[in-house]
Amino acid sequence: MNNILKAKNLKALIGIILIYVIVQALIMVGIVDDYYQILLVMICLNIILSVSLNLITGFTGQFSLGHAGFMAIGAYVCGYITVTVEQEFSFLIGIFAGAIAAALVGILIGIPTLRLKGDYLAIATLGMAEIIRIIILNVEAVGGASGLSIPQYANWTWVYIFTVATIVLIKNFINSTHGRACISIREDEIASEAMGINTTRYKVIAFAIGAFFAGVAGALYSLYFYFIKPDQFGFMKSIDILVIVVLGGLGNIHGSIIASILLATISSYLQEYPELKMVIYALVLIVIMILKNKDMTKFKKFITEKILRRQTAV
Amino acid sequence: MTQFLQQLINGISLGSIYALIALGYTMVYGIIKLINFAHGDIYMLGAYIGFVCITYLGLGFVPSLIISMILCAVLGILIEKLAYKPLRNAARIAVLITAIGVSLFLEYGTMAIVGPTIRTFPQVFPQSRFEIIDGVVINVTQIYILLVTIVLMILLQYIVRMTRMGKAMRAVSTDQDAARLMGINVDRTISFTFAIGSALAGAAGILVGIYYNSIDPLMGMIPGIKAFVAAVLGGIGIIPGAMLGGISIGVIETFVSGYGSSLYKDAAAYAILILVLIVKPSGLLGKNVREKV
Amino acid sequence: SSGGGNGNKSTGDTIKIGLNYELSGGVAAYGQSSRDGILMAFDEINAKGGVLGKKIEPVVMDNSSKADEATSVTTKLVNKEKVVAVLGPATSGAFKATIPAATKRKVPAISSSATADDVTVDKNGVKEYAFKTCFNDAFQGTSMANFASKTLNASKAVILTDNANDYSKGLAKSFKETFTANGGTIVAEEAFVADEKDFNAVLTKIKGMDFDVIYLPAYYEEVGLIIKQARDLGIDKPFLGGDGYDSPELIKIAGASALNNVFFSNHYSSQDTDAKVVEFVENFKAKYGKEPDAFHALGYDLGYFIADAIERAGEADSVKIKEALEQTKDFPAITGVLSIDENHNPVKSITIIELKDGVQSVKEKIEP
Amino acid sequence: MPLLTVKNLTKSFGGLTAVSNVNMNIEKGELVGLIGPNGAGKTTVFNLLTGVYVPSSGTIELNTKGKPVVLNGLKPYKITKAGIARTFQNIRLFKDLTVLDNVRIAIHHEVKYGLVPAFFRLPSFGREEKEIYEKALKLLQIFRLDGKKDELAKNLPYGEQRRLEIARALAANPDLLLLDEPAAGMNPNETAELTELIEWIRKEFNVTILLIEHDMSLVMKICERIYVLDYGMVIANGVPEEIKKNKRVIEAYLGEEILNA
Amino acid sequence: MLEIKNINVYYGVIHALKNISLKVQEGEIVTLIGANGAGKTSTLRTISGLVKPSDGSILLDGKEISGINAQEIVKMGISHVPEGRRIFPDMTVLENLELGAFLRRDKAEIKKDMEKVYERFPVLGRRRKQLAGTLSGGEQQMLAMGRALMSRPKIMLLDEPSMGLAPLLVKEIFEIIQDINSQGTTILLVEQNANMALSIAHRAYVLETGSIVLEGPAKELAQSEDIKKAYLGG
Ligand SMILES: Nc1ncnc2c1ncn2[C@@H]1O[C@H](COP(=O)(O)OP(=O)(O)OP(=O)(O)O)[C@@H](O)[C@H]1O
Ligand SMILES: Nc1ncnc2c1ncn2[C@@H]1O[C@H](COP(=O)(O)OP(=O)(O)OP(=O)(O)O)[C@@H](O)[C@H]1O
Ligand SMILES: [Mg+2]
Ligand SMILES: [Mg+2]
Known about the structure:
The complex is a heteropentamer.
Chain B: H1 2-32, H2 39-56, H3 61-84, H4 92-114, E1 119-120, E2 129-133, E3 136-139, H5 140-162, H6 164-174, H7 176-181, H8 186-212, E4 214-215, H9 221-234, H10 239-259, H11 265-279
Chain C: E1 14-21, H1 28-47, E2 55-62, H2 67-79, E3 86-87, H3 92-104, E4 109-111, E5 121-122, E6 125-126, E7 130-132, H4 137-151, E8 156-162, H5 166-181, E9 185-192, H6 200-207, E10 213-215, H7 220-233, E11 239-241, H8 249-254, E12 262-266, H9 275-288, H10 294-313, H11 318-326, E13 331-333, E14 336-340, E15 346-347, E16 350-356, E17 359-366
Parallel strand pairs in C: 1-2, 1-3, 3-4, 4-7, 8-9, 8-10, 10-11, 11-12
Antiparallel strand pairs in C: 5-6, 12-16, 13-14, 14-15, 16-17
Helix pairs in contact in C: 1-10, 2-3, 4-5, 6-7, 10-11
Chain D: E1 4-13, E2 16-26, E3 31-35, H1 42-49, E4 57-63, E5 68-70, H2 76-82, E6 84-86, H3 99-106, H4 115-120, H5 123-142, H6 158-171, E7 176-180, H7 188-205, E8 208-212, H8 216-222, E9 225-230, E10 233-238, H9 240-245, H10 247-254
The complex binds adenosine-5'-triphosphate (2 copies) and magnesium ion (2 copies).
């Protein structure tokens, strides 16, 4: 078993490095220009956000509509530190400070609210994110409504490193006994508790880890896009992340990655159709959701009828 | 004291608007457990339909109201059939995402047709206001809205509790298959629910359009969320809860603005919501059912 | 193509100009209005033969009212579309977020409505490729504060701002500084958040205070509702504001009877009898079927403004255009004659407009 | 000293007293039945023992290592750690997880490695995961489920789901195992098989078992002692022979004397 | 009266019913026995229209009913007491019974039928106003049967009515089934408790992994050694 794991790990490692080398080469020859780099960074940030939300909502089953709130904390704490400290690599301190601050807030808010179920939890987390945003809006030290400008420290390489780290760490977590404990809460909270799992603790852990990486994404966002404003972290941002998670599949990390790429690509194409952009986006969303639900059973039936039958014939 | 009374009136009238929208929200939720994000946008369309009726067709208030309610009901049924029905057996969160899609579609579809700028509603009611006691004023439209909300709440409660259709709705809400076995047409019942919920949104749209006399394609977003919050605060799925939740949010916001800082009124409303949920996890009027094991 | 670079040149038979606007999302109304104004100007210019003998080819993209998308759009416009200038976004935050991308490519970015004082300058000095054609927030706030103290003899003011809006907060800040410097007191600073419709709570609170004027720097959507609701509650003190009031919708929302004792600072008056203004208003109505608001007018001017700079640059070369922009002197816009100062801000006169039963009249004109 | 001592256990829901003044002792190694009419409060007793409900009054003591631990008011997971595991009246497996994972989750509380080794796959992670895997596999082999370890629990036939639920409960290493109607929905043949399995488990795992069941063929055959509940109260307690003949039990529950079950 | 011909049912990839055919004559009690997952519930759900067969036909009094919606099938006289009772827990006993008569408009007759149900199940009569969810298991089973009777069915489909019931109640339920049958309602009964089912049924079918493997008079099957070995624990 261990050997298989290692072979798989090696393959993944080669893949990760290969992607980086290829992109870097394309940047060098100018095929990937500034614009594509922004697109890549957006995709990576969405991956971090959706994978971390997937841990909370997809794996642990806690419906959260407040991910943008954690992102905001990461972005602002990091931005503020980077601007005030102004030393080389202060931005790295900023990223970790932002992530830890987000995780702390996650724990603080998670302990009382995670008793709530389903839609009630969703609305409580939405409220929490709004409270965070409103507080930031009123803190003049970080610019309030007019926003905060930050030197651009992060580049595509940094963002890529953090994205890979996020995916690897969260995957490792999920495939451990702690991850299984989280998943069991999603499956059946009562049974999970009866099997000896401290469900409150694991919900808070999942929430904190999710918040931590949302904080990382927020921090990187502030460092790459060098300008942050409270309204970038509103309710719709949380929804955007949730859309990616559901589109890619709850509890499916690869799905989140693919959906991040897909949605970023779609919306970059749509920039050129300003008037109908959102209408098309909305339609695409509805149609994908319907097809996703519908064709699965048909698809499976197709496989059994066409492929399995063929097997028996052979 | 004068100021306190005036603020109370302000709070109740703002709250009755939230309640009016929350009624439809809660009703749809109560039956199919769907947070219908598009509800706020149907409210917006209700306002636009009313606007067209009054401004371009020159109709009076009552016919405009009826047309708006009917068209919204039809639209509600259509949305349900096209977007939600194919997902009847899907995970609830998937339907939620579809509802968000529908919401965006309505918002930006409307924007593509009428443009993003606001339109102003003509004055249909006389702009009269009473001075109840010295310095405390109340607007006629405010009274209308409050009355309409109360009447609709009672009517809805009657429909759901007393009528045959209401029984069917409740049966469908607990167990669709069992309801089918009773001979209940589940699809029709759900359509009916959407029709009523959307008609309510339409009514709300036109009333609020008249009250504030400015409408725009994104006007449904914030009241939609506030109404949702109100419904949850009162206990989602419970009709009087929507009323209670709506009025509470309105009064909280008003008093926080009036006596504290208006900067934190939304934050205060959310904070109170969270506090209430921590004490009563299923809202003010919600029953605290623990799953029977 | 080479990254970074020495600016973009239009070598074909058209001149590409990028438009990066808020066409969807929360402030789509401002973005779409600006775009309509600009496109109208371009149409007129192209109809008259274009610039340097070439037609202007606008490349319009949507930034969804999001700052990061705005960055991405400008990057796309300067790198992929190779435009020689980017117009927009309309709001200060989004505009700020695009400037580094434009600067890196040496392409000028110009906004006709990003009013924040610091969009074109920061602590490192003037941003080489950023320009704006609208007032600084400070200029409007100061002018109105002086008007309040000197013309209206007010000594006590209430400030009511849109807390989520940096334009509103910027104006309020400078109003407060000047008003208190003039010896006045700020009785209270209240706030609301855009997109609300019910302001009775905060107005009831204000009603109970002792003051001479209310300074309400905000956009007409909220201003209309606030003034209407204030008058309904029995507040009849003067309302003062800025160019955000300038829209034909204001009178429809608030109702003519509420719009008395209202003053605001503006670039021009749409009731102006100046032939150019009259012609613009008429052409606009013919084209779009409605009356223009401030964003339309400012956008329209921006269209001519960039064309003028290209003409003077003598070549559709972004670096040269930037140089020409810096040289702008006494450009005759319909929203007032303007020159560009060393901070890439416009120097133009401000007009104070009074509303009587909703009808505009020029109360004062203040030269910079 | 008994393994489990229940004193004056009471639970009310609003006006209804579902369990009222129940006293119960279970010795180590016993196999005890809990029977009674529908709604008598049997499942509620289980829910009280496992912390799903908090008792209105009374005490529950578990005595595993010579020192009694008071269980009332403890969270379910703590009770599981203290040594009680259960199955549910309506099967509550982790339906969308594999058979293997169902069992591995129940081993969770024995795992010592923390979050950091999990994130970074430190050696302790690998070592312990291997142990968990082997332990789970052994259990599955015992229950003849090892061949299906990678199937989703929901795809197992009903009987195997019941077995998996018991295996999962045993994975939590209990001293006391609570089974709630393990034979429900089984035909007489399957029930007979299950009866044997339960007896065998007791020996093999050295656990004490308390079981609720309406199928008298199973109860009378393997239970050494039986408690009978009616309206939340213990109306009888004794060996099967006594219970079968008890008038009150016959009246309230059995309907007629069962002579040869 | 009810005839099923060669139906097949799939749940996604699972082939749950394979070419099932069976018949129920007027006035009969027919029982369907089989191990867990054999497809008993699926058969009933297919008859009452909750599941659509991929092919085959279902005839009620010679009329094709496969493909018709569940609510229409109720109208035609089939009523289904589902596995797990599926009463409406948040409604009162009375409201549950009213829903049973949802399709009927004859108020007076409904009232009469309701009295009959109360007569047959006196517990329900005493608990009219109680929320159904708070009834005990046996009471809920009675409510489910009473509710099904309210539609005045010609034929009743019962899915494991004795599951989870105390021995006393098991006996009672089977007596009630016989009684309902003797008053003219045809019954198709699915049971795990094969002993009891065979003892009251006229005819029986044995289902194994989706196919019918045996059929015949109930008395005969009860004597069959194979059946005894496989299902009767003997
Ligand atoms: N959470 C709850 N809220 C209200 N009443 C409850 C709750 N849980 C159980 N009850 C009631 O307590 C009583 C005992 O229920 P319990 O489930 O313990 O019965 P039981 O003996 O297990 O019956 P069965 O053999 O039918 O499973 C019943 O009347 C039941 O309705
Ligand atoms: N909704 C469903 N989706 C997928 N598979 C299903 C579904 N319902 C039943 N099945 C499968 O179809 C087969 C037949 O199930 P069915 O419920 O009809 O059996 P049954 O004879 O009633 O069993 P039991 O005695 O357990 O009630 C089983 O393999 C079951 O797992
Ligand atoms: Mg029980
Ligand atoms: Mg079954």
